[in-house]
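Pasting as-is:
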Amino acid sequence: DLFHKKVAWDKAMDLLYKFYIKNDNYPEAIRVAKAYDLDHPDETFTTGEIARLYAKTGNPADALFYYKKAFRKSADIDLAKKIVITLLQMDRPEESRYYLSYIIEKDPNDKTGVNLRKMINGVLAARIRLVNQPGDIFSNNIQAKYYLFTGNLRMAKKFIDQAMKINSRDKESLILAAEY
């Protein structure tokens, strides 16, 4: 009978996790996965799965924590890419540089990583310029492009508006305003 059947703890946790995932109950799936992760601290998969679920539920801070934890357990290009994406969504480009360097070191032909690193370096340089020269239209446009790229439309609009105030006929600012 059902109540006298013995099921190994790992198997029970797996069945429970799958049940919650099937029913789109991600908070409970996360709870089960975290319990399993505590019991199996050397497994990277579960830690990465917790991160993925946090990302799926719109919780980038917790997703980042678990992606980094998984990366520390087993450095991997795919995890590094997820960390970079999460950091950019959280507007933390300076922190993404370490993971971009890792990606490029492991795969020098990764054009996306190379291009992202170039963009991030430009964004960070533009931020420094804007501190001393807030009227620098070029730097405002770089920030606007970055925020459009990351999907942060509120910040993109802020920098597009600033650029348009500086020169409402600037070709690049007009293009960015149209993209917005």
